[in-house]
Design a protein that fits this description.
By secondary structure, this protein is of the alpha+beta class. The protein contains one helix and four strands, in the order αββββ. It has a four-stranded antiparallel β-sheet with strand order 1-2-3-4, with helices on one face.
Amino acid sequence: MNNRNQHGGTLVEVVIAMFILALIIVGLNAGVLSLIKSNMSSKDLSAATSSAYSLFEELKMASYSSIMTDCDTVNNKYIRAWQLLDSDTSKKTISITVYWPVSVQSHSITLSTIIARP
């Protein structure tokens, strides 16, 4: 039997191709994990911002004299702390800082607004 007419890859070529494929898969896996982490971080930031805007609306609906510095917890994940930066007879400047996660408070966002006396 003549082996000259057979076509195919050698074992070394197959091993090299598998190694290159493994490197590509590992690289794609790292990219996907990074994308998932970034997506979760964006979701948390969006929820924290929404929580702050919700508190702004609550404070706007409250009586002007009852607006004071305070804090609360939302869904056991976010801590909202608000403080009066400036207060006079016609307006109050309020700053809200939202921290998350509750256990380590490693992330935060701060928003400010002015509430005028009705």
